[in-house]
Amino acid sequence: MSSRIPVHSVSPEGPSAQAVPSSHVADHPDRLERKIGKAMTELNVRLGLFGEGDRVMVGISGGKDSYTLLHMLMRAQRIAPFHFEILAFHLDQGHPSFPVHRIREHLETLDVPWAIEREDTYNIVTEKVPVGQTPCSLCSRLRRGILYDAARRHGCNKVALGHHREDLIETLLLNLFYAGMMATMPPKLLNDAGDVIVIRPLAEVSEATIIEFSNAMAFPIVPCTLCGRGRDLKRDRVGRLVHELEKEIPGLSASLMNAMANIRPSHLLDEKLFDHHAIGSAHAEAAPRSIPDGHGWEDE
Predict the structure, then answer these.
(1) Which run of H or of E encompasses 241?
(2) How many domains, in total, are found in the chain?
(3) Is residue 273, in this structure, part of any structural domain at all?
(4) Do residues 52 and 81 make contact, with C-beta atoms less than 8 angstroms apart?
(5) Which of 19-28, 88-97, 123-132, 291-300 tops mean pLDDT?
């Protein structure tokens, strides 16, 4: 079962009559906004997440991350030296008790086009995932496919998601611990079909900063209650591990983020990235050393 609500446009004059009260604007947390904006801008300059002519569909879940992302992209739209469009998009997944109206009411206060569409993934998830197992993975895959389809229909070439620094770190460790590979959520990724680019503008912003900003802005947070079966326990465990280690290793999160941008293929085991067999052969120049001796943990 699916249903669609037409895109709601905004007038050229500005927000609708339900604009954010002036008292709310007066309390606007400028310092946090600038801090998040700086991190977003630096990431965008490095990776080209969004730019001239892009039409970006912003996934709105009702959580702190997606509300912050939408706010910051709207800010970027106002001050950036290039033009791009935004469509705020919420997927109603059919949970009978999910308060979609709270998200709709918030979007109605904003000077941004928005759409809410319903696809009943709730019953699919509850039918497919046995009781006692975490449905987050299946739910995420279903949701992602629907987002891609929606982006195509609405003429959006990019989909922006609100994942933050800790999401990237936890995903890296989850892949290391449980999947036996080194991978995380990249800040920019082309989908398998090759027609939609996923971007994560908050990838280098800490969750603590987002929480502080979200609280200051009093966003109408709607917790994820889709399945009623609790959170992803593995992700929670990894998150707690990082939090505990951070107490003993100051700067751990920053170090893990730096590591993801500082790969040394010659000091790993993936022959697809580095031909170790060529070392010492006539073709040794094809496999140069990536780092000099004495610059890695292996030397401790």
Answers:
(1) helix 233-248
(2) 1
(3) no
(4) no
(5) 88-97
